[in-house]
Amino acid sequence: MAYCAVACRCLNLRLNLRLNAGDAAQKTASRNTKTMFAKAYSIASCFTLPVVISSRSDQGECKSTIGACVVVNRDGWILTSAHLIKEIQRQQDSSMKHSAYGDEVRKLEQDTVADKRYRKSKVRTFQRPSKDSVRNHSVWWGRDGAQLRDLSVLPGADLALGRLQPFDPDSVAHYPAFKNPATDYAPGRSLCRLGFPFHEIKPTFDQQKNAFVLPQGAVPLPLFPLEGIFTRVVIAPMPGADERTPGKFIETSSPGLMGQSGGPIVDAQGVVWALQSHTRHYPLGFSPPVPGQGKSTDKKEHQFLNVGLGVHAESILQFLTSRKVAHQSAD
Hints:
Elements: H1 2-34, H2 38-47, E1 48-57, E2 62-71, E3 77-80, H3 82-109, H4 116-125, E4 134-140, E5 147-154, E6 159-165, E7 177-179, E8 190-195, E9 204-206, E10 211-213, E11 224-236, E12 247-252, E13 264-266, E14 272-283, E15 304-312, H5 313-322, E16 328-330
Parallel strand pairs: 7-16
Antiparallel strand pairs: 1-2, 1-4, 2-3, 3-6, 5-6, 8-11, 8-13, 9-10, 11-12, 12-15, 13-14, 14-15
Helix pairs in contact: 3-4
């Protein structure tokens, strides 16, 4: 009987130790879950900058488009989305056409030799830019006065690389490390996407200074984190790009939002696994009737899943290496 009592006490002690260890592990896991991306946010917020593209139409309407970029190193090199650069170049081309049209009109108006009637009829032959075309535009790279130089673009991979000038290397407290795709780079990992969605900027244009003015309180832009699970690797052409040059992307279970293009997708340690590119929409195959129709069931809901696609770390590292841009990597 004494032996049995001792054995029972030992068994109870072992059970209590296991339960206590389990409780401790559960509490630790709970704490890690609550602060999963707190460290990552703190680190990534240092090297993630907003990109604000301001434009003024032929009719004088001003608006802005917002994206993001990642500062790679102390030399001011940045990565962003190629489709953002494409939009910037489209606006530049439109602005140049406006400028050329204005120069032609002014030149003709200053021609005092030509008959007034002739000048008037000649102006009608000039190709006037459309009403919704861009007359003026500018880009704010998260730093006043900074311009993008030495631009390289990979449209199929939706990657763009450039160097900000002037650039203060001490303005960035932490520079990014990019995930080594050869080490533990597989689906199932929780990742966090950062950028600047849900923030609208309505700029004005100062004609005397020939410059855009951002409204008071527009900056700094609030950085928005969004968690998602790395679901799979996707090799496909970027929408609108040459189908013969597909890009390599990772897919996440949460969508990329407007304002996050060019922003980093990081793990809990703040290591960059991808760069946000675009969002895809997958039909779920469910078509329930739209509620509130009464007896009519003609209208059906179109249900789908939004997933985010980010440029794969392999493509990022190859691009940086090919351009001989210094960078950090992490296993």
